[in-house]
Amino acid sequence: xxxxxxxxxxxxxxxxxxxxxxxxxxxxxxxxxxxxxxxxxxxxxxxxxxxxxxxxxxxxxxxxxxxxxxxxxxxxxxxxxxxxxxxxxxxxxxxxxxxxxxxxxxxxxxxxxxxxxxxxxxxxxxxxxxxxxxxxxxxxxxxxxxxxxxxxxxxxxxxxxxxxxxxxxxxxxxxxxxxxxxxxxxxxxxxxxxxxxxxxxxxxxxxxxxxxxxxxxxxxxxxxxxxxxxxxxxxxxxxxxxxxxxxxxxxxxxxxxxxxxxxxxxxxxxxxxxxxxxxxxxxxxxxxxxxxxxxxxxxxxxxxxxxxxxxxxxxxxxxxxxxxxxxxxxxxxxxxxxxxxxxxxxxxxxxxxxxxxxxxxxxxxxxxxxxxxxxxxxxxxxxxxxxxxxxxxxxxxxxxxxxxxxxxxxxxxxxxxxxxxxxxxxxxxxxxxxxxxxxxxxxxxxxxxxxxxxxxxxxxxxxxxxxxxxxxxxxxxxxxxxxxxxxxxxxxxxxxxxxxxxxxxxxxxxxxxxxxxxxxxxxxxxxxxxxxxxxxxxxxxxxxxxxxxxxxxxxxxxxxxxxxxxxxxxxxxxxxxxxxxxxxxxxxxxxxxxxxxxxxxxxxxxxxxxxxxxx
Length: 615
Hints:
- The longest helix is centred in the first third of the chain and has 21 residues, at 180-200.
- By secondary structure, this protein is of the alpha+beta class.
- A hairpin with a 3-residue loop joins strand 27 and strand 28.
- It is globular.
- It has 3 domains: 3-91, no CATH class; 101-176 and 220-308, no CATH class; 316-389 and 439-612, L-fuculose-1-phosphate Aldolase.
């Protein structure tokens, strides 16, 4: 029996395991543990306990008194029909590392960049030391054959290549030099793909794997050698871009540098190296720099989380979709006002259309599949949380809690439901357990790719809800089949902040709350009395991920747990990404941002991050 797969499969079905000394404890939804599963668990009890200890499952509970699984299912909108899609989130880099497999692509002939070679060798050792399984190229790949048919001339050719297996999390490569022959082959492959797509496929969409087969014979790009480009990330090591890490160059200029670097190399992560510095770049476009002497910290806190949690948008299938009238929402109107007022801050640079920066149709089609049909990328989010919606008592006594019923998919010790269907959680605040109703959460947010500083009320503002599942309301009159109106990449973060605020800092959200995210940080001295921050020490998981939502949920709790005063503003720090800010008042937020910008205490990029790490 593979104990890891066995435990993870049952965890996804709502079963919660933990080890109490030498005893195996289990909490399971009704009907999941069949008699045969109970026999299997008893037979492999020792191995399961060992697995739980090795992978920190026994320390799954957080400062909130809730398990990571419960927090994940709350912010993810868990419901029975999607039970198999939910995994317990992982927020410990040590645990992440032990679940990763990576491989290093063989070096090109004649490669002699000493700085990159030295870094590559050291990186392999550092990953192994952290518990990552580093596979040889032979172990990580398999032989794959396929046939390319050239229409009209009825000529076909059989191709045999080695492809990276789908269960490998990342392939680490080095920047390869352009050659005239390689460029000519790529040109011919692209022309062939355009012809094939138009006349044979008649512009029908095909899988990423099929696209890479059609052009891979002429490409030296590693993405053409992946069995599943959606599950294996490409990491490129190259010499550091001095302009990208130059503190004197504006973040707006760095966006162009970063985007071009990622697109040119068709990599999800680009590591820049010099004799004394390390930079790391992904679509979050962080300009973080690590001294070479902090190599271990770079691998542990930055690289491993990015490999474990790739950037990926939520599919529309995750939501219950309906329509709403934005003209009837005062919060949609407030959001549009917020967006236009933010134009002068410079914190929300213009994004880009994928079609404008990715010139090759084959590459555009690959990216289109990976990003689930999104046509553009923008930086930051603007949102407005509505007051949380309750039915009945917002908080109950322990005695009342004991009389409540179990909830399918949740631990009976953490979540229960009353006779009218309202769910309550048992959570901890200031070392005291309280029993709080889980409210319905609604917020309005800019659609993915919108101009964050000039939102159009009729087509740019989505209404998202978190009830028993995630809900998405699209403006009336908009056809999502014809218009790119996808929810924000940061959906998990948005609903996590709103829910945690309702539970732990209700004064912030009781009349609604504006929320923003920008790709920079405030200086520590910017914060006034009753303004707090948290999250600086978190592993730097990318935006929009399950784990990033959990970290923001925990940050709200940790702030509320440590202070006795009402919280006026909370800054939730996401290393290598930026800052989320939530306040209770729109005008207050705008005034505080204006002050920070005037005194150069808030700006894009990583300049002020170091001040937040000071004790």
